[in-house]
């Protein structure tokens, strides 16, 4: 923990998760303008799953950084 590869992994996971979080929220908002109910249901549930996965990626990154800083006494 704390090596260059570890930092790159954590930063990449956080950035990709933030990108997909923004994308899924945008698509969820646009789903409410759809005319067909079946399309709405498909888009709504797929974007909700993408939203949850993105949040898990962000939580993972923040918890890894928190544990790293707590372990080294850098509060």
Structure, explained:
With 75 residues, the chain is mainly alpha-helical. It has two helices and no strands. The chain has helices at residues 4-31, 37-71. The chain has one domain (4-71). Helix content is 84%, strand content 0%.
Query: Main beta sheet: strand number and arrangement?
Result: none
Order of helices and strands: HH
Tally of helical runs: 2
The total count of strands amounts to: 0
Structural class: mainly alpha
Low-confidence stretches: none
Total domains: 1
Molecular shape: rod-shaped
Oligomeric state as shown: single chain
Query: Quick check: average pLDDT?
Result: 92
Strand content: under 5%
What separation lies between the terminal Cα atoms?
Answer: 17 Å
Rg for CA atoms: 17 Å
User: What percent of the residues sit in helical stretches (DSSP H or I)?
Assistant: over 70%
Short recap of the structure:
The protein has helices at residues 4-31, 37-71. With 75 residues, it is mostly helical.
Describe how the helices and strands are arranged:
Layout: H1 4-31, H2 37-71
Helix pairs in contact: 1-2
Key terms:
single chain; 75 residues; 2 helices; 0% strand; rod-shaped
């Amino acid at each position: 923990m704390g090596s260059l590869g570890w930092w790159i992994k954590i930063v990449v996971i956080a950035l990709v998760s933030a990108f997909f979080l923004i994308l899924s929220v945008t698509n969820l908002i646009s789903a409410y303008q759809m005319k067909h109910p079946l399309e709405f249901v498909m888009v709504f549930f797929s974007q909700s799953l993408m939203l949850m996965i993105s949040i898990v990626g962000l939580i993972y990154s923040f918890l890894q950084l928190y544990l790293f800083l707590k372990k080294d006494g850098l509060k």
